[in-house]
Target: LysR family transcriptional regulator
Amino acid sequence: MDRFNAMRVFTRIVELGGFAKAADSLHMPRASVTVLIKQLEAHLGVQLLHRTTRQVSPTLDGAAYYQRCVSLLADLEEAEGLFSTRQPKGTLRVEMPAAVGRLVVFPALPEFTGRYPQIDLEIGLNDRPVDLIREGVDCVIRGGLTLDDSLVARPLVQMDQVTCASPAYLLTHGVPLTLAQLSGHQMVEYFSGASGKRYGLEFQQGEDVQFINLPKQVSVNSAEGYLAACVAGYGLVQAPHYHVTQLVREGRLQAVLTDCPPPRMALTALYPPHRQLSPRVRVFVDWLVDLCARPTSGFRR
Model:
């Protein structure tokens, strides 16, 4: 029995809550996963997992063993990364907002894959919250505040934002030149599909931020839908500059209130502590930091 491989399988079962999910995550036959865990329990002489028809959970011994496995596997990967002259290899699972992937990451991605040809990328494009441990994700890129203190946060960039509306909407409602002139206007409302939290408009005025809620007819829970509703004429929106640049250039959106822009939005890479020294994660996040700092990234005016 390969004990390190058995530990790796065991940690994935605990994190994903099932043998089948762990097997799929590791691209292993399910029967092989079952055999490895039986061999590991026989070797240790303890039961590591409670198995029911509905779920799999660690025993008290299993929970303690899981923590040691996570630490040992992280130390092993760190040691291999420090002393190996080989390039990082293996699968790297990343989640990011669809717009960041489509407009920023994918146009530059051939540079990364050319530099690290042995890394296989699995990239999910969505705005939903991701449970990195349970879903087996190595790294997630998110905009806005990061509230999960259990994850390592690597700042990427402070994104400029802009307030926009469609030309047709502004023709009907007028172009606001000051915040006082927002009376009589409406907004597209963004809400979180996970928490239900709803977001109004924010304007930076010196050191202060002014929050304004306008009437709305349409509310959406995705960044792409948010801009689509704006293009359709449902009101004002606020979005990162890179996300609306093309729409403004095409004349489908128009920037307004440029003298009092929204506050900048942080873009951050997040990953579990025990993966922070993974060579795959490290080189990818380092590349993202460099990419986001480039004038061509679209994040800065």
Summary: The chain has a mean pLDDT of 87.
